[in-house]
Automatic annotation (TrEMBL):
Signal peptide start and end residues: 1-21
Alphabetized Gene3D superfamilies for the sequence: 3.10.450.10
InterPro entries named in the record: CYSTATIN_LXN (IPR049897), Cystatin_sf (IPR046350), Latexin (IPR009684)
One function term, GO molecular function aspect: metalloendopeptidase inhibitor activity
A Pfam family hit: LXN
Ranges for domain Cystatin LXN-type: 22-127, 147-210
Keyword Aminoacyl-tRNA synthetase: no
Transmembrane segments: none
Stated family: Belongs to the protease inhibitor I47 (latexin) family.
Protein name, UniProt field: Cystatin LXN-type domain-containing protein
Any GO CC annotation of this UniProt entry: extracellular space
Length: 210
């Protein structure tokens, strides 16, 4: 019989939506966008939410570095397609970890943007796999369940012991942040309100019978 994961982290997240579209907007013309424009940065972040979700690795999370190039094209009856080139940073260390080429298509009818993304990655991938695994092992061996509130706290501080729980919450919420984004609405994870580790029933049973 397969053993289920001993540890489940149940984080309650505070995802903040940023809505745009109220107030005057510059005309949505096709062509090159300024790399510092809100539209370019927003589309690049959506592509990264998608990437972080697909990778599913708390040790390999990436944030946006700089947009290098951004173009938008209207596809009549379908939506707006963004062509992007940008650099990425490691979530924790803020070190540059590679460049991405991505397209983000905001469809008129469906909220979920269609993303295609290819990146280079300069961080040691063996190391990120090992970091993920040692976190997983630590979770399983934890005798006292991990609990925490308000990560980061109101001063922006994250207790080192809770850093993995924070990273796991970012990885886990990436799917939602990608799925719920529209051209005028983007999400970022502001805070983990609380996190609690549960020991699954399967694990208790196997411990009792073993
Ligand atoms: C997004 O903003 C544009 C321009 O401000 C507006 O025309 C459009 O209706 C908005 N879309 C949504 C879904 O709010
Ligand atoms: C990513 O790579 C695939 C396979 O080489 C290619 O088909 C796709 O167009 C690339 N995507 C982007 C956004 O460059």
């Amino acid at each position: 019989m397969q053993r289920r994961s001993a540890a489940r982290l149940v984080p309650l997240l505070l995802l903040l939506p940023l809505a745009w579209g109220a107030g005057p907007e510059p005309p949505r013309a096709d062509g090159e966008l300024q790399v510092s424009s809100r539209r370019a940065g927003q589309a690049a972040r959506v592509a990264l939410h998608y990437l972080n979700y697909r990778q599913g690795s708390p040790s390999a999370l990436r944030a946006l570095g700089q947009v290098r190039k951004a173009t938008v094209k209207t596809i009549p009856g379908i939506g707006h397609k963004y062509y992007l080139q940008f650099t990425t940073e490691d979530y924790k260390s803020s070190q540059n970890v590679g460049t991405c080429l991505a397209t983000v298509l905001y469809l008129k009818r469906k909220p979920r943007p269609a993303v295609n993304i290819n990146c280079t990655y300069t961080k040691d991938q063996k190391q990120t796999r090992e970091d993920d695994y040692s976190f997983y092992k630590k979770l399983r061996q934890q005798t006292k369940p991990i609990t925490g509130n308000d990560i980061p706290d109101s001063y922006g501080h994250i207790e080192p012991a809770l850093e993995p729980a924070w990273a796991l919450a970012v990885a886990g919420s990436s799917y939602l942040m990608w799925e719920k984004s529209t051209e005028n609405l983007s999400y970022f994870m502001a805070q983990v309100k609380n996190v609690k580790q549960w020991v699954s029933e399967a694990e208790i049973k196997s411990a009792l019978s073993g």
